[in-house]
Amino acid sequence: MSTVNNHSRGGDHDPWASEKMRRADNGAPGCAGLRSFDYDSTWLCDECALPVIVSEWVRGDGHKETVYVRALARRLGVRAFLFRHSGAEGDWRTEAEDLFTGQKTVFATEGEWALWGENLYRQHYPAQCRPDKVELSPEYSQEEAA
Q1: What pLDDT, on the 0 to 100 scale, is given for residue 112?
Q2: Are 78 and 54 within 8 A, CB to CB?
Q3: How buried is residue 107: exposed, middle or buried, by Cβ count under 10 Å (0-12/13-18/19+)?
Q4: Could you report the per-residue pLDDT of 50-91, keeping only the tens digit for each?
Q5: Alpha helix (H) ranges present in 66-138?
Q6: Which is more confident, 15 or 25?
Q7: Which of 3, 16, 28, 102 is the most buried (most CB within 10 A)?
Q8: H-helix or E-strand containing 106?
Q9: Closest CA to 92 of 143, 129, 145, 37
């Protein structure tokens, strides 16, 4: 049931649930009203273990359905993003689209993307997580992102 578009190209995706609950006729036996979806990433806070964002990734500029990702993020009270990238080796150009505001941010380097992620983390539950105590890895310095 997995296709080239929803199947892992890296070989680490287990399609079992998708094959059982993503049938073309939506008729998985015993699963009336249930759906299975695999969103691509949840960024978790190291301090409190709660989600910071949920995201979906897509290669290229094509459409990617995000209904379930947005619903999950809304329920968790976190932000949701669609990341677009080329998938080409060595090409770090990535676009992040906020799925609630539509705002888009483009990153040219891994450093820019990492600093953006660190900023999201520092906005996350500041009173509980004490982000002022978190040290950035030296490989993601301000100079590299510039």
Answers
A1: 92
A2: yes
A3: buried
A4: 888 999 988 888 778 888 899 999 998 889 999 998 888 888
A5: 67-76, 110-123, 126-129
A6: 15
A7: 28
A8: strand 104-107
A9: 145
